[in-house]
Amino acid sequence: xxxxxxxxxxxxxxxxxxxxxxxxxxxxxxxxxxxxxxxxxxxxxxxxxxxxxxxxxxxxxxxxxxxxxxxxxxxxxxxxxxxxxxxxxxxxxxxxxxxxxxxxxxxxxxxxxxxxxxxxxxxxxxxxxxxxxxxxxxxxxxxxxxxxxxxxxxxxxxxxxxxxxxxxxxxxxxxxxxxxxxxxxxxxxxxxxxxxxxxxxxxxxxxxxxxxx
Length: 213
Description:
- It contains nine helices and four strands; from the N terminus they run βαβαααααααββα.
- It is an alpha+beta fold.
- The protein has a four-stranded mixed β-sheet.
- 38% of the residues are buried.
């Protein structure tokens, strides 16, 4: 069974959705029978690599609301994250451009370390408040996940895997992805958003029943 996931490393519901899918895979016992492929998606391609603004300030500006209203919005997300064991740190979270992070994930996938780097990128951003748009942080993440820091640096200072990332984003438009996370199972069943774990489990069981996976 193949599950393709369009997501972004600054998307709070992408991390929540990842955890809920993992719960469903454990519940159904299908974890070792599934190939997961992460696809690139950029929520804000124009975001700077480094910013002094907090995410709450950015949200306040984006949605024309007060800072207190933005904090209430993020508090709701924090509570949802806690239901899957994630402790989001919005106080230290800042905007980040994720194009290079997606390129790093492509390198990691080639080296069979895609899951490790994806998890580390999400954890670094949402839990540690790291600036995942910078070469320094991305190189450290790569090394921690088991990639050579020399290889990661060489990739980050080139345009390697840029075409792959752009291809994922173009494909998202073609298949009608309007928001992330977006899950496609066996190129047949689509799930949009961080749905409850049981929704994922039901979809997985349906695939097994219909296709004999």
